[in-house]
Amino acid sequence: MKVLIFNGSPRKGNTLTAIRAIEKGIESRPDAADIEITRIDAEGKNIVPCKACNACGSMSRCIFADDSPEINEAVEAADVIVFATPVYWWGVTAQLKLVIDKFYSRASKLGKGKKVGTVVIGGAELNDPEYDVIQKQFECIAGFLGWEMAFEKSISASGPKDLAGDQDTLAELEALGAGL
User: Fold this and answer.
1) Can you tell me the distance from the alpha carbon of 51 to that of 62, in angstroms, rounded to the nearest whole number?
2) Alpha-carbon distance 158 to 168, whole Å?
3) Which range marks the domain in which residue 8 is found?
4) Would you say 82 and 25 are in contact if contact means Cβ atoms under 8 Å apart?
């Protein structure tokens, strides 16, 4: 099994802590030796904004020389994809949005039947609509691509190290990783 984890955060705080907990859960599985985990940090990628020209769909490559071909190859190869992002203005980070936008024209090549998990971390209380807005967006993306939502986890953590001290949520994240 190949697991691809997208880190949408440009910082090393709660989102990275959540990702590490999910990875720990995956690594605790009895079949962990047969699982390949790849993490892509959106912040470190050179992604030119999508112009919706559809060249990548028809020519099999983007007209811009950026990192989207390697990202799309990783998506195509993955069985499970986890998107982890902090909330920025009621949405995913700009870095992660650039990555996701490049999926559109290659939708038919990315592969159907993948399992998808989302981790959304914001400073607001969990009843705030920001979490629902983002989770709904991922549900729509998964539906369009023919992917199955495996889990959706929203976390309220405003300080950059808040999640590191929340043992219950970390245990939940580990369980989500183990259950993939």
Assistant:
1) 10
2) 17
3) 2-178
4) no
What are the CB-based long-range contacts (under 8 Å, 24+) for 51-54?
Answer: 52/104, 52/105, 53/105, 54/105
Interval 63-114: pLDDT, tens: 888 998 899 999 999 999 999 999 999 999 999 999 999 888 788 889 899 9
In residues, how long is the chain?
180
**Rg of the chain in Å (alpha carbons):** 16
CATH of the domain at 95: 3.40.50.360
Global model pTM greater than 0.90:
yes
Residue 58 has pLDDT above 80, yes or no: no
Domain count, the chain: 1
Mean pLDDT of the 131-153 span: 96
- What is the pLDDT, as a whole number, of residue 162? 94
Burial grade of 31 (CB within 10 A; 0-12, 13-18, 19 or more):
exposed
For CA atoms 107, 111, 115, 121, the dihedral sign is: negative
